[in-house]
Specification:
CATH superfamily of the largest domain: Metallo-dependent phosphatases
Number of strands: 29
Helix content: 25-40%
Largest sheet: 7 strands, mixed
Distance between the termini: 111 Å
Structural class: alpha/beta
Shape: globular
Radius of gyration: 28 Å
CATH class of the largest domain: Alpha Beta
CATH architecture of the largest domain: 4-Layer Sandwich
Number of domains: 2
CATH topology of the largest domain: Purple Acid Phosphatase, chain A, domain 2
Number of helices: 14
Strand content: 25-35%
Oligomer: single chain
């Protein structure tokens, strides 16, 4: 042997092993979903060549197979797309989240249509902590049934999670008052939540961000949004405009898996010494039944909700003597029927409805709850409006006649422009106050001519579908309504 000792020969190898150990990163896996909207089960998916995909029973198998430290988060949107979601107001989705289990879930834009009582009932029944950091009641009081932040433990690390709802991407740092709630400035709530989480020992901060689906965003929005304020390590967004991860200043922005068809798998790579986030790996994982299988306990839970929904949706609400299609020549039978129904229920002089409200015609014979919901899928409520005759005529002149139906009024148009408006008793009287019934979808928006011309208005909070069911309950059989309500020369 040469003159070099054994320890001297081993030293370079030990140094290399030590360097390799330091180079290794600690990894934590975050699974993220959003906008599942009541889609609980796997279904054939055309974009995946018709393969069976999606649902929480498949997701649980994927989640359980992950060997690294992990947790799951959901970004909200729990009920709008399925009967199981509508009937339970999201309870069915939250029960599935608890069965996985998820570490936390955030109320999203969709949940803002729930009343505070409905949201409170969901939160109290949910084992999964529900977050809504910038959501307040209209009294400016923070709802005590929701949390502003949550500490999650994974791999010996403490990870702070909070959530924000952005109703207007053009002004995220402006407070907004909604029908049931107030959304506080996002920047203000971010500072509060991050400070509370850091004080609680959070080593990493994750933001669940719900963006209004009617708003257009791009990467520039996130970069500007995150440029100010405290450090947020990872932003998980439900925004479909974001299709992959990117850096926005000091933060990573990653999209969640949407519609319970995909799950986002986010690998957080941490420096073992400092615990700081050094890198992120992201993958959008299709929830393929053939690849992962389905959890039997969750399948049983979901089957119970599906049976209850099927029984409810097959209940008859009434009977039609003749079919009510969306269009029959120049007439709009289904919209005309709905307008007549609103007028009768509200006991008003007239009723207006947009042709975008009904989505599918009704066949003659027995009409079920499910068919009525398919015909009127929007969650519209009936609004009472008081308006003078001269203001009503001016307002109707500004409404596209090709997009509405009326009851109690006759509209006469020439060359596409409104010529005059008559009631069943003759021409409108300019000084008389008329009472109208309209869906809130028709009077939505600041520039609506009917709403801006009204003397007063009030939302009945009574859903349009419920009003139509009331009309069915008052008649054993409903004939096709008379048409020719808009005369065009």
């Amino acid at each position: 042997m040469s003159g070099r000792s054994l320890p001297a020969l081993l030293l370079p190898a030990l140094l290399l092993l030590g360097a390799g150990a330091c180079a290794r990163k600690e990894e934590i896996v975050v699974f993220a979903t959003a906008r599942t909207q009541g889609r609980l089960w796997a279904r054939p998916e055309p974009s995946l060549k018709g393969r069976l995909a999606g649902g929480f029973a498949v997701f649980k198998k994927l989640y359980d197979a992950e060997a690294r430290p992990k947790f799951a988060l959901d970004g909200g949107g729990w009920y709008s797309a399925t009967p199981e979601g509508w009937l339970t107001r999201g309870r069915s989705t939250l029960d599935c989240l608890a069965a996985v289990p998820y570490a936390a879930a955030a109320a999203g834009m969709e949940e803002l249509s729930l009343t505070p009582r409905e949201l409170e009932d969901l939160a109290k029944a949910s084992p999964t902590p529900l977050l809504a950091s910038n959501l307040y009641l209209k009294s400016n009081r923070k709802p005590d049934f929701l949390r502003s932040q949550q500490l999650v433990r994974a791999g010996g690390r403490r990870i702070g999670v909070f959530s924000l709802i952005v109703a207007a991407a053009s002004a995220p740092n402006r407070a907004r008052y909604l029908q049931h709630y107030k959304l506080e400035k996002a920047s203000y709530e971010t500072e509060k939540a991050v400070k509370a989480l850091r004080d609680g020992g959070a080593e990493l901060i994750v933001l669940l961000l719900s963006v209004n689906p009617r708003e257009r965003t791009d990467r520039a929005f996130y970069k500007e949004f995150l440029a100010r304020g405290p450090r947020v390590d990872v932003v998980v967004t439900d925004d479909p405009a974001i299709d992959g991860p990117f850096r926005a200043g000091r933060s990573w922005v990653v999209p969640a898996g949407l519609e319970a068809l995909y799950a986002a798998r986010i690998v957080l790579r941490l420096d073992p010494a400092s615990g700081r986030l050094s890198d992120v790996d992201w993958d959008r994982v299709p929830l393929l039944e053939e690849k992962y299988g389905q959890d039997q306990a969750l399948l049983k839970l979901i089957a119970g909700y599906r049976r209850a929904a099927s029984a409810h949706m097959s209940r008859p609400v009434g009977r039609l003597e003749a079919a009510l299609p969306l269009a029959a020549g120049a007439d709009t039978p289904l919209a005309d029927f709905a307008a007549d129904c609103m007028r009768r229920w509200a006991r008003t002089d007239a009723a207006l409805i947009g042709l975008s409200e009904p989505a599918a015609g009704l066949s003659s014979g027995t009409v079920t709850v499910g068919e009525l919901r398919a015909a009127f899928p929007l969650d519209s409520s009936v609004v009472f409006v008081k308006i003078r005759g001269d203001d009503l005529e001016r307002a109707m002149a500004a409404v596209p006649l090709s997009g509405i139906s009326v009851s109690g009024l006759r509209l006469f148009a020439r060359d596409g422009a409104l010529e005059r408006v008559e009631t069943e008793r003759g021409p409108l009287q300019p000084a008389r106050v008329y009472r109208l019934a309209v869906p809130d979808s028709f009077v939505g928006g600041r520039d609506n001519p009917v709403l801006s011309s009204a003397m007063e208005f009030a939302n009945s909070r009574r859903p349009l579908r419920e009003v139509i069911s009331w009309c069915f309950s008052r008649q054993r059989s409903i004939p096709r309504p008379a048409g020719a309500r808009i005369t065009r020369n």
